[in-house]
Design brief:
This protein is mostly beta strands. The protein has 2 helices and 10 strands; from the N terminus they run E-E-E-E-E-H-E-H-E-E-E-E. It has helices at residues 44-54, 74-78; strands spanning 2-6, 11-15, 20-24, 29-35, 40-41, 62-70, 83-93, 96-109, 112-121, 142-151. It has a 10-stranded antiparallel β-sheet with strand order 3-4-6-7-8-9-10-1-2-5.
């Protein structure tokens, strides 16, 4: 998972490879957990400010998402076709839960479920305060990119008529 903030003064990007996900293709339930401190920045000072000043990682150590897949064609997915899906659920960041809808794509490749999603988050919506002094350095809307490969714990079966 990565996020990107672009502003007039600087671009900020961070990545985490420590997220965990559970996607039940039979029920359509989706859950993600991301340790906030797992995000790695190019500059250590940015990472320190992110954890201490904005995300308060000691107080709010994880971001989570719990939701439901919509418009999933399990038959087409089982045949190896990429599926455009919409997920609706609760995104919890910094002690605040917001209902969100995210567009994404699912694809089965060699028994692994590949997940791609791109969405935006406004830090202000989650009570993340950006001090006036650095407000021009951080975008009001941050882009989130999710790319995941999930191991299958069971075979996908076709939808029942």
């Amino acid at each position: 998972m990565s996020f990107f903030s672009t502003s007039i003064l600087e671009d900020i990007e961070a990545r985490s490879e420590q997220s965990a996900a559970l996607i039940d293709l039979q029920s359509g339930q989706v859950a993600f957990v991301i340790p906030i401190k797992s995000f790695q920045f190019k500059r250590t000072l940015m990472q320190e400010h992110f954890n201490e000043n904005y995300m308060e990682s000691e107080k709010y150590p994880k971001a989570t998402f719990k939701g439901q897949l919509h418009n999933l064609d399990r038959d087409a997915l089982a045949k190896g076709q990429s599926q455009q899906v919409q997920v609706e659920g609760d995104l919890f960041i910094h002690g605040v839960t917001k209902r969100v809808q995210v567009q994404g794509a699912l694809e089965l490749q060699k028994g692994n479920l590949l997940v791609h999603a791109f969405f935006s988050v406004a830090p202000a919506d989650y009570g993340i305060e950006i001090p006036l002094l650095v407000r021009e350095n951080i975008a009001r809307i941050v882009s989130i990119k999710l790319v995941a490969s999930c191991e299958s714990v069971s075979q996908i079966s076709a939808a029942k008529p």
